[in-house]
């Protein structure tokens, strides 16, 4: 197995590109793919200040590393979700990563700063954990970006993530979600721009990137994700990909090239927030008097904390 570029021994094969790469040229490929995604989708303008949402997982640590390598001004934001030992460990890894490099990292802790955590909020509001988790993260990413004067929020969603979400939305023809499933969402109505620079790279490549760059990341998955639909869609797509390399990329980029615009009708810019006001409690854009995040906090703060004993159980 030889590197496609230099013919030296290769360390990784990428079947959908039908090519092998040595360490140096694989790392270069990752940077080039991020640069291409940024350019093709007009994600970032020169001089933009970026806020990278980092979870301690391979994708978000890698995207932060790559953006800095490409010369962007990118700071980190970590949210302690209070999901037992998983959150403790991911927080440790994220902080160590930022400290070793001397890169600015803002830390928000749901328990310390808002007196709740994801397992408790899920129980009190009878939501599935991912729903309470997603709502909290989205709100805090947006607010931190606006308060900090950042031009865009960056997340580590990769090709596997986006293809799996697309698969789920397509199976149920969730047209409003399909209209908004883009690698860049422009700033609007007080919400910051959101960008996903890893859409051209897969999960396996991001793991390899971290290993080759010596980045220590949390390998464990969120214990509350066990058995969720998203993981099932990923497995299904991996089965198809194994038979037919390139399927995920064709599915997702074919959607962007040939289908997504068809769903834009009726969803206008993909959202119906023309009548947005501001939340009376936190000042964020909100359709109600109080935003969904503040309602969640009001209901969950001070509730008897749910203690995660065995991984994932309560
Ligand atoms: P997930 O929804 O867990 O797949 O995460 C998707 C992206 O959201 C990650 O790549 C990160 O950019 C961001 N993210 C997830 N969890 C956190 C967290 N606890 N703190 C900050 N960013 C996060
Ligand atoms: Fe949904 Fe962790 S709460 S993946
Ligand atoms: Zn090479
Ligand atoms: Zn609010």
Low-confidence runs of at least 5 consecutive residues: none
Shape: globular
Summarize model confidence as the mean pLDDT: 94
Q: What is the strand tally?
A: 10
What share of residues are in beta strands?
5-15%
Major pleated sheet: 6 strands, mixed
The helical percent reads 40-55%
By DSSP (H or I, 4+ residues per run), the number of helices equals 13
Order of helices and strands: EEHEHEHEHHHEHHEEHHHHEEH
> What integer value in Å does the Rg equal?
20 Å
Spell out which ligands are present: adenosine monophosphate, FE2/S2 (inorganic) cluster, zinc ion
Distance between the termini: 48 Å
User: What is the topology, as strand order, of the major beta sheet?
Assistant: 5-4-3-6-8-7
Structural class of the helices, strands and pairings?
Answer: alpha/beta
Describe this structure in words.
This protein is an alpha/beta fold and 314 residues long. The protein contains 13 helices and ten strands. The protein has helices spanning 23-40, 58-69, 84-101, 110-114, 118-125, 129-147, 159-171, 175-180, 203-213, 229-243, 247-258, 260-264, 292-300, and strands at 12-14, 19-21, 49-53, 73-80, 105-109, 152-154, 184-185, 193-195, 277-278, 285-286. The strands form three sheets. Strands 5-4-3-6-8-7 form a six-stranded mixed beta sheet, sandwiched between helices. The chain has a two-stranded antiparallel ribbon with strand order 1-2. It is globular, with a radius of gyration of 20 Å. The termini are far apart. 39% of the residues are buried. The model has no long low-confidence stretch (mean pLDDT 94). FE2/S2 (inorganic) cluster (FES) binds next to helix 6.
């Amino acid at each position: 197995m030889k590197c496609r570029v230099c013919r030296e021994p290769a360390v990784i094969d990428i079947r959908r590109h039908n090519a092998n790469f040595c360490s140096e040229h694989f790392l270069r490929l990752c940077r080039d793919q991020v640069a291409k995604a940024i350019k093709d989708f007009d994600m970032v303008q020169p001089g933009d200040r970026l806020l990278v949402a980092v979870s301690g997982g391979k994708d978000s640590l890698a995207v932060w590393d790559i953006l800095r390598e490409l010369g962007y001004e990118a700071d980190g934001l970590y949210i302690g979700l209070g999901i037992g030992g998983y959150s403790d460990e991911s927080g440790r890894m994220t902080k160590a990563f930022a400290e070793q490099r001397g890169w600015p990292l803002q830390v928000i802790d749901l328990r310390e700063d808002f007196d709740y955590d994801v397992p408790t909020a899920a129980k009190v509001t009878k939501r599935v954990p991912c729903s309470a988790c997603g709502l909290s993260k989205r709100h805090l990413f947006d607010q931190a970006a606006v308060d900090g004067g950042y031009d865009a929020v960056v997340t580590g969603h990769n090709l596997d993530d986006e293809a799996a979400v697309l698969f789920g939305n397509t199976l149920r023809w969730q047209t409003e979600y399909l209209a908004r499933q883009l690698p860049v969402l422009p700033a609007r109505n007080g919400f910051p721009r959101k960008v996903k620079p890893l859409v051209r790279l897969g999960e396996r490549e991001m793991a390899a990137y971290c290993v080759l760059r010596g980045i220590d990341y949390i390998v464990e998955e969120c214990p509350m994700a066990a058995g969720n639909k998203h993981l099932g869609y990923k497995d299904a797509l991996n089965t198809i990909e194994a038979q037919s390399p390139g399927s995920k990329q064709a599915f997702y980029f074919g959607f962007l090239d040939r289908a997504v615009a068809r769903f834009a009708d009726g969803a206008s810019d993909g959202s119906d927030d023309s009548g947005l006001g501001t939340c009376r409690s936190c000042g964020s854009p909100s359709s109600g008097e109080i935003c969904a995040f503040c309602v969640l906090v009001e209901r969950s703060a001070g509730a008897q904390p749910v203690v995660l004993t065995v991984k994932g159980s309560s």
